[in-house]
Amino acid sequence: SERTLVLVKPDGVERGLVGEVISRIERKGLKLVALELKKVDRQLAEQHYAEHDGKPFFESLLEFITSGPVVAAVVEGPRAVSAFRQIAGGTDPVDKAAPGSIRGDYGLEVQYNLVHGSDSAESAEREIKLWFPEF
Ligand code: ATP
């Protein structure tokens, strides 16, 4: 079994979609092993999105992710990383995310794509340490 870090981003929290996201995770058969509502400071945001440093959308992404509380979760199950990315849908909610996925059902713009899920088991380990240092 594998772990992944899931975030409901500020747009998802603001729109009242926390329950919907958690519900889809649970219905898929994945397990919540940590869950927290968290205000994200600049330092955590920079560390989380370090791979995007220098990209044109980096500054705007940091502003967005620090703009309000996020829900962070550690999710566990067989192939949890891929399983959650399937539930979430592709990064662009219109061009990439299929209907029936979280982003496909609720998203319109690439920045405001509601959720984050680690992209590999290695990223998951790094991100879980970052978001849940006590875990
Ligand atoms: P996440 O890492 O949040 O799960 P992802 O792995 O699907 O998303 P990445 O390519 O890692 O996508 O991009 C990280 C986040 O940066 C995206 O989820 C989105 O919020 C934002 N983003 C990506 N591309 C753009 C863009 N072209 N313009 C604005 N924001 C973007």
Question: Care to describe what's here?
Answer:
- This protein is an alpha+beta fold and 135 residues long.
- The chain has a single domain, classed as Alpha-Beta Plaits, CATH 3.30.70.141.
- It is 41% helix and 19% strand.
- It is built from 7 helices and 4 strands; from the N terminus they run βααβααβααβα.
- A 4-stranded antiparallel sheet has the order 2-3-1-4.
- The radius of gyration is 14 Å and the shape is globular.
- The two termini are 17 Å apart.
- The model has no long low-confidence stretch (mean pLDDT 98).
- This is Nucleoside diphosphate kinase.
- GO terms for molecular function: nucleoside diphosphate kinase activity.
- Its cofactor is Mg(2+).
- It is found in: Cytoplasm.
- InterPro entries: NDK-like_dom, NDK-like_dom_sf, Nucleoside_diP_kinase.
Produce a short descriptive summary:
GO terms for molecular function: nucleoside diphosphate kinase activity. Helices cover 41% and strands 19% of the residues. The protein has 135 residues and is an alpha+beta fold.
Essential attributes:
135 residues, alpha+beta, Alpha-Beta Plaits, 41% helix, globular
- Tell me the Rg in angstroms: 14 Å
Number of strands: 4
Q: State the CATH superfamily name.
A: Nucleoside diphosphate kinase-like domain
> How many alpha or pi helices?
7
* Strand numbers in spatial order across the main sheet: 2-3-1-4
Profile the largest sheet: 4 strands, antiparallel
Strand content: 15-25%
CATH top level assignment: Alpha Beta
Helix share bin: 40-55%
How many domains make up the coordinates? 1
